[in-house]
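ok so for the tutorial part 2 we go from a plain amino acid sequence to predicted structure tokens. step 1 is just haveing the sequence, like this:
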Amino acid sequence: MYFEDYENAKSQERNSDDVYSKPVRAGKRTYFFDVKATKGNDYYLTITESKRKIERDGKYVYDKHKIFLYKEDFEKFSEGLQEVIDYIKERCPVTEARPYAERQAPDAPDNQGASNYSDVDFDEL
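step 2 — the prediction. this is what the tokens look like for a chain of 125 residues:
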């Protein structure tokens, strides 16, 4: 959703400081990258990590952590983040989970010797 979309849609209710949001699902977590505006129409970014947990009574709760990133800090933040990501990738390769449909079939030539186990996400049970 873009700020202009909100301005043109007077009938829609919105939080006065929400401008744009990008959710990113990553395994058990969802990250929300939210652009917000100050009263002076200056933008800043909030990054929220949300992880679903099950309480003892069976109800779902969300554990959330949020940071605020202001535009004057974007350059140093992104440089530091990229440096740390590169460090981790060099020393411990990162493998991201891909949906089952995107993986090669077990009998494909590149995948010989692979196990015949199916993927089970125990958090979904």
